[in-house]
Amino acid sequence: AGAALREPLSRLYPPSSHAPVVGCQAGVRALPPRSHFGYVPIADRLPVPNLNGTQVWMLTGLGSRGLIHHALLGKELAAAILARDESMLHPHVRRLAKQMDLFLSAMPEESLT
């Protein structure tokens, strides 16, 4: 990866052509399935049995839209958690149950225990 980046970087900043590569990292960006609105974040209660009497909620898939969605979705998610009512969340961000049903139906039964 360092070799692939060195040549274009040295065109932008010539002194970098002799700089040592200190390290290289890569990551994966998780995106929710595309809807007719594009990549809309997911906010929902996990459709799993309660763990020690607690519920598990999530807000994920913000991507670059997190800049404009984080505050609104965070506020709505906090209200839904306090009320213990996921129906308070907008239906377009509540696609988790459908995705989980598809995922779980494809898994062997013994892997779910």
TrEMBL record:
<dbReference type="InterPro" id="IPR036188">
    <property type="entry name" value="FAD/NAD-bd_sf"/>
</dbReference>
<protein>
    <recommendedName>
        <fullName>FAD dependent oxidoreductase domain-containing protein</fullName>
    </recommendedName>
</protein>
